[in-house]
Structure formats: structure tokens, C-alpha cells
UniProtKB/TrEMBL annotation:
Compartments where found: Nucleus
Entries under InterPro entries matching the protein: AMY1 (IPR026060)
Protein name in UniProt: MYC binding protein
Record lineage: Eukaryota, Metazoa, Chordata, Craniata, Vertebrata
Keyword Nucleus: yes
Length: 103
């Protein structure tokens, strides 16, 4: 009987720990969100993982970041081409240091 009470006490301590740290509220809210979904997802575990990881960047944010990255990469490439072109034009007007040393 004493063994039963010891394990019950540990369970109660663990439950209080989960409640105090907000884990129970978070899990409950995710499960409620899943319950309230009109179209249930094919993979409930993925739904839970997605909503539990909601404190980080959201998928929509990730897509926006990918689009911004692609846009910035394109601008970078254009600026590198422009830089190369301007360097070539500059070389037409200014002799390189090697040419000056040879004279």
C-alpha cells in the first residue's frame, strides 16, 4: 500500500509540474484546435507538431522568407553583373598598375 501512495505522490508532483510550466494548457489548446478543425487533417501527429512548434516561425513566414531570399538573390546577381561591367569600363579609362610600372 505504501508503494501505491509513493507512486501516486510522484504522479501528482509531475502533474503539478506540467501545469505550472504551461505544458498542460499548451497541449490542451492544440488538442482543442484539432477537435475544432472542420476538415480533419490526414496526419493528426503532423498537425500537433505544427501547432506545438508555433512559437517559432510559422509556415507562412517561411514561405515569405523564401520569396524574399529569391528576390534578394536576383538583386544580388544583377548588382554583381553591374559591378563587373563598371569595373570593365573603369579599366578603359584608368591604366592598371602593371601598365604604369612597365613605362
Amino acid at each position: 500500500m505504501a508503494h501505491y501512495r509513493a507512486s501516486e505522490s510522484k504522479r501528482e508532483q509531475f502533474r503539478r509540474y506540467l501545469e505550472k510550466s504551461g505544458v498542460l494548457d499548451t497541449i490542451t489548446s492544440v488538442l482543442v484546435a484539432l477537435y475544432e478543425e472542420t476538415e480533419k487533417p490526414n496526419n493528426a501527429l503532423d498537425f500537433i507538431k505544427l501547432h506545438l512548434g508555433a512559437s517559432g516561425s510559422e509556415p507562412a513566414d517561411g514561405e515569405a522568407l523564401r520569396l524574399e531570399l529569391a528576390d534578394l538573390q536576383q538583386k544580388f546577381n544583377l548588382l554583381m553583373e553591374e559591378n563587373k561591367e563598371l569595373k570593365n569600363r573603369l579599366m578603359q579609362y584608368e591604366p592598371s598598375p602593371d601598365d604604369g610600372a612597365a613605362e
